[in-house]
Amino acid sequence: MNKVPMTSVGEQRLREELEHLKGEARPNVIAAIAEAREHGDLKENAEYHAAREQQGFIEGRIQEIEGKLSNAQVIDVTKLPRTGKVIFGVTVELINLEDDEEVTYRIVGEDEADIKSGLISVTSPIARALIGKEEGETVLVRTPGGDVEYEISSVEHL
Predict the structure, then answer these.
(1) For strand 72-75 and strand 91-96, is the pairing parallel, antiparallel, or unpaired?
(2) Can you give the residue range of the structural domain that contains 52?
(3) Which secondary structure element, helix H or strand E, spans residue 152, and what is its range?
(4) What family is it from (predicted)?
(5) CATH number of 65's domain
(6) Do residue 150 and residue 117 come from a single domain?
(7) How confident is the model over 31-49, as pLDDT tens digits?
(8) Which of 42, 75, 108 is the last residue before a domain boundary?
(9) Contacts of 86 (CB under 8 A, 6+ apart)
(10) For 156, how many CA atoms within 13 A lie in the half-sphere containing its CB?
(11) How much is the CA Rg of the chain, to the nearest whole Å?
(12) pTM for the complete prediction?
């Protein structure tokens, strides 16, 4: 299986979620199933069926997180040399050449992406256009809404 790039912050968040699911959510749902069983007839017991469905979700999420962590290639950009080049994990400040609007994005793994927080997936059109470019370069980004031209004003290893 291919390695999946992930920031150290993203890895930590997944580990915390996994710990919560295994340490709290799983025992709670097992207790809920046991309690619902005590109420008798399981065929018509909505609490039992809801708890079993929740258990399936929790177990599926645990497997998903464990799989992601086992294939993760954690990249701590603060330990990499600063070259001015756009690479995974850096924070990039861009200037839209059409309207001079400035935007700042951090290039992260797919699971960490949150556009509202300025975190873009390494597989997004913007990130793919930026990777390998350097400060001062102009980049053409093909988006569903049309082509946008940006100038890379800074590349930070935060």
Answers:
(1) unpaired
(2) 4-75
(3) strand 146-156
(4) Belongs to the GreA/GreB family.
(5) 1.10.287.180
(6) yes
(7) 999 988 888 777 778 888 8
(8) 75
(9) 92, 107, 130, 131, 132, 133, 134, 152, 155
(10) 10
(11) 22
(12) 0.79
